[in-house]
């Protein structure tokens, strides 16, 4: 009996000692080894458009998420030519000179997406002359209501604000006012690299009534403007697929996925939680990038793109909560603030991601970099740069 009591006491004492022993600490992950996803503004040379390979290969957990820019430019060009093909020539050619004159709002001559949209527009209208430079263009041709017309780009201009910010809607309003005065009835059409600038054009007090105008992004206000007959068309770059895709890649990396699983789980096949993004998202290995496809939005389908439609393929998970620091280059950017950010905030909690969002002024990289701090407190990072060649400024801060 005494032996049994002694044995019991020994067992209890041993268990107490084990429970009192310090628990092993989780291995600390250095910032340089954490997931890093660039989104919306692809690391690249603003002059040549060449991809910044050092940025996208920063570590084995670095990727880019965006949309098919070249394909989007082609979609916008076709949207315009399809509209013209069925239009009334007498209404389109306002001064009856046999020429379709258009003006073009360019977002940023150093931005790959802006270049792709400008190229897509000019190729569709025949005014492409091998350059996205606003001053390099040629005479094109287009079919309007079964009749061939010459096409000229009256003027293309990069919309830069007084503060240096690009894709500036106020600059577009001012430019449109000047164009309407300068070209008068020679303006038969207005085309813009994004919806923000298109809507800015419509704000010009002397905007020529009834002149068709086309944007890009399918922002909520632009979609409503199509329904109201003010905007004639835009292009959806599947913002929900992009936002959910940005978070999905981060979630996959945080969950320890590697190789093809990073860009297939939750995309082409369900992830471990049963989630799968509904629209097609393509992976390009040479760019370590996932790209959402684009679609035209016009009076025939605008209701399908009204605000509030979210991807039913993404549902609430029980994933371990992780902290992610995310930068947005410009708090005033219409697409990012009114479309992309709300989508991010919707999908993040479903995926167990606690987002901290910092926003810049669209002009100075420091406006984002100065808030890209306390990095050790975060498990992963998502970066939207002010300038596409600024990736090294962020990776330099992640070296330690």
UniProtKB/TrEMBL annotation:
Residues 1-20 form the signal peptide. SUPFAM superfamilies: Periplasmic binding protein-like I (SSF53822). One of its GO terms (molecular function) is carbohydrate binding. Residues 321-391 form the MglB-2 periplasmic binding protein domain. Keywords: Signal, Sugar transport, Transport. Transmembrane segments: none annotated. Its main location: other. This is Monosaccharide ABC transporter substrate-binding protein, CUT2 family (TC 3.A.1.2.-). It comes from Treponema bryantii. The lineage of its organism: Bacteria, Pseudomonadati, Spirochaetota, Spirochaetia, Spirochaetales.
């Amino acid at each position: 009996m005494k032996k049994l009591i002694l044995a019991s006491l020994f067992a209890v004492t041993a268990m107490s000692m084990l429970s009192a022993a310090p628990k092993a600490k989780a291995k600390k992950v250095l910032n340089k080894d954490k997931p890093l996803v660039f989104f919306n503004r692809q690391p690249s040379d603003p002059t040549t458009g060449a991809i910044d390979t050092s940025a996208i290969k920063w570590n084995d957990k670095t990727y880019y998420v965006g949309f098919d820019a070249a394909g989007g430019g082609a979609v916008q060009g076709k949207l315009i030519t399809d509209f013209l093909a069925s239009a009334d020539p007498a209404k389109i050619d306002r001064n009856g000179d046999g020429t379709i004159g258009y003006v073009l709002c360019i977002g940023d001559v150093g931005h790959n997406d802006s270049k792709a949209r400008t190229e897509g527009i000019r190729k569709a209208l025949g005014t492409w002359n091998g350059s996205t430079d606003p001053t390099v263009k040629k005479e094109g041709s287009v079919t309007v209501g079964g009749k061939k017309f010459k096409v000229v780009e009256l003027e293309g201009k990069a919309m830069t604000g007084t503060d240096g910010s690009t894709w500036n809607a106020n600059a577009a309003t001012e430019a449109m006012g000047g164009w309407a005065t300068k070209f008068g009835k020679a303006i038969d059409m207005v085309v813009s690299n994004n919806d923000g600038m298109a809507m800015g054009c419509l704000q010009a007090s002397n905007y020529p009534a009834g002149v068709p105008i086309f944007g890009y992004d399918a922002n909520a206000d632009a979609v409503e403007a199509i329904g109201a007959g003010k905007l004639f068309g835009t292009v959806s770059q599947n913002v929900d697929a992009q936002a959910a895709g940005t978070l999905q890649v981060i979630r996959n990396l945080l969950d320890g996925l590697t190789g093809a699983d990073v860009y297939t789980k939750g995309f082409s096949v369900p992830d471990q939680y049963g989630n799968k993004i509904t629209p097609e998202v393509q992976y390009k290995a040479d760019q370590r990038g996932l790209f959402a496809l684009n679609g035209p939005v016009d009076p025939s389908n605008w209701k399908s793109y009204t605000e509030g439609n979210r991807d039913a393929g993404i549902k609430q998970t029980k994933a371990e909560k992780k902290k992610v620091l995310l930068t947005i280059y410009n708090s005033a950017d219409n697409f990012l603030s009114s479309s992309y950010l709300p989508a991010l905030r919707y999908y993040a909690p479903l995926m167990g991601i606690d987002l901290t969002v910092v926003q810049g002024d669209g002009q100075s990289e420091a406006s984002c970099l100065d808030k890209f701090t306390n990095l050790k407190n975060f498990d992963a990072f998502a970066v939207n740069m002010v300038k596409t060649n600024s990736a090294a400024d962020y990776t330099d801060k992640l070296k330690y």
